[in-house]
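Consider the following assembly input.
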Amino acid sequence: AQSVTQLGSHVSVSEGALVLLRCNYSSSVPPYLFWYVQYPNQGLQLLLKYTSAATLVKGINGFEAEFKKSETSFHLTKPSAHMSDAAEYFCAVSRGFGNEKLTFGTGTRLTIIP
Amino acid sequence: NAGVTQTPKFRILKIGQSMTLQCTQDMNHNYMYWYRQDPGMGLKLIYYSVGAGITDKGEVPNGYNVSRSTTEDFPLRLELAAPSQTSVYFCASSFRSAGQGEDKNIQYFGAGTRLSVL
């Protein structure tokens, strides 16, 4: 079985500050990992994904995440927060290519302080 | 581009009523999914389909039924609505075929249906 744990259901950062959203995973096989963003009253949109290639993954809107097998982590970062980054962020894991069923974390709501 | 379209956006049901949540995609995706999202929780997979005529249960299928008669449509049926089914429902789709690149293994989501059962 696979699972993800997102530490911190709410995170607040000042505009221009570093954004760090934490995700730890558990998987019995090499995982595929994803970060999705959900803006208010919208569906989920893919930010970035890790699929066993480069461990540092760059996504849209300046976000990136680093896969660390030794720490079973896939934390999401952005060097400088923008007001438009305010949203809910979900980490998800699948068992890898050929198994598209995703297991989601409980989400982290990001608030940007002007 | 329409992508994944869900209707209705909002619905209030009385206990015991039935309804169908509609989902259609215009990307020619073979895989489709239904999730529910409860407050403070991640998305839970209800049912999924790997192609027309093929469906399978996800993590929380009880109280729901699905069908997949066409590639485009994947409706979700609630037969006897219960308060525990109050949630936001998301439909998603993805494309996969043998030998494809990993870039295809991405799910695209609709905007959701907010359902209240009172």
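Residues 28 and 56 of chain A are 22 Å apart (CA to CA). Ask yourself how this observation constrains the way the partners meet.
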